[in-house]
From TrEMBL, chains A, B:
Cell cycle is among the record's keywords: no
SUPFAM superfamilies: HAD-like (SSF56784)
Family: Belongs to the HAD-like hydrolase superfamily.
Organism: Thermococcus gammatolerans (strain DSM 15229 / JCM 11827 / EJ3)
Full protein name: Glyceraldehyde 3-phosphate phosphatase
Length: 242, 242
């Protein structure tokens, strides 16, 4: 009997990768408009490399971009980049298609909901609050607070304890086969791989840990209903025998 | 003959203090809405004290606010504060009344214009770009790049060199008697004190360095015209004798 459904945040509930791509493009365009003398393609490629090397939470991307492009330090161009990036972040931050409908349906079915995510806690909460999905969730678990990253079992175990459920009563939905699906399966949860975004064809070595593979979140309520109906039949043999 | 007019940025061209006040109020309100269990007045007062002690460019205001209020660290409340603050910053950032009209008039009179400001270069450029005043200015001088702060004479001397003018050919307009007016007067510029905002009644010991005191920026073109007409008459005695 599934009692709790956990969701990953980035690229499961919120379209983070798509947002980041648009924001980065707008940043570069704004820098060029402010006078940065570089071809768009070259600057964008260099920015992606930089993010790849330094990580997406590095806060001096635009400074370093100028260095890599052999350009002088220019706060005007950097400011233009920051403005382009932030304006996009605020106007384009969106939930993945079908999220609100899915969450509402699960709540109507009487389920508890949680988020299990990695990342900077303040930035993760910013996404949750800006997209106004906070009220659907009973708990938000951020791995930083446990001092680990998914797929470490500690964060999944903590999630189960918080909701006082057994692993078999919980389901994890996420876009990453390694961190979400393998992670949740280790502690015995049901797993649903959301084949979406930039990890849709990655980490396939861990495919065996996915109980279900979906391409739309709106399949989640059906899966839960299916599992719970099945179990009800099994535990109620008289009804079954009718 | 005035050839260049320099302006300070914060609270002269851009309504920074008013903006910061609204942004801080909205941040606290948003934190309370997100569940922070504190009275608005208490939290706001504590935030002002904190900014006073750590400076306005400190980037952990909301973290430290929770510590000072003896509350647990809560990324949700911090994120709510960040959202409230940033949304305000973007929607309320405005030039001071009359700025664009004044700048346009000065350009029509054939003057060169510059900005002389302290502060974080990227943040200062963000304000200039967001309010769309960049095209009026021939140079933006930020003291950080010279390694000093106003009223250090180095930044004013650099400004004069950039425009290749004598001190008597330049005018400084700013809201701070100490950093703007005393600073510019040290190197021999004409000075116009804009008696406005939170420094309207402060640093009065330096009042003697102000050649003019104005309450509206729209008085600047008249002052320049007055000085330039006067000088023309003096240097052209025949016309004067008519």
């Amino acid at each position: 009997m599934i009692k709790v459904v956990f969701f990953d945040l980035d690229d499961t509930l919120i379209d983070t990768s798509k947002l980041a791509e648009i924001a980065r493009r707008n940043a570069i365009e704004n820098m060029i408009r402010a006078g940065m003398p570089v071809d768009f393609g070259i600057a964008y490629h260099e920015l992606l490399e930089l993010i790849n090397e330094y990580g997406s939470n590095f806060n001096r991307h635009f400074d370093y971009l100028l260095r890599r492009l052999d350009l002088p330090h220019n706060p005007r161009w950097i400011a233009a980049g920051v403005i382009g990036y932030h304006n996009t972040k605020i106007s384009h931050l969106k939930t993945v298609r079908g999220v609100k409908r899915t969450l509402l349906r699960l709540k109507e079915m009487g389920l508890k909901l949680g988020i299990i995510t990695d990342g900077n806690p303040v930035k993760q909460w910013e996404k949750i609050l800006r997209t106004e999905i906070e009220d659907y969730f009973d708990e938000v678990l951020i791995s930083d607070f446990v001092g680990v990253k998914k797929p470490h079992r500690k964060i999944f175990e903590k999630a189960l304890r918080k909701f006082e459920v057994q692993p078999g009563e919980a389901m994890m939905v996420g876009d990453r086969l390694y961190s979400d699906i393998y992670g949740a399966k280790q502690v015995g949860m049901h797993t649903v791989w959301f084949k979406y975004g930039k990890y849709a064809n990655k980490e396939l070595d861990y495919l065996e840990y996915a109980d279900f593979v979906i391409r739309s979140l709106e399949e989640v309520p059906e899966i839960v209903r299916g599992l719970n109906d099945e179990e009800e039949e099994r535990s109620d043999p008289e009804v079954h025998a009718d």
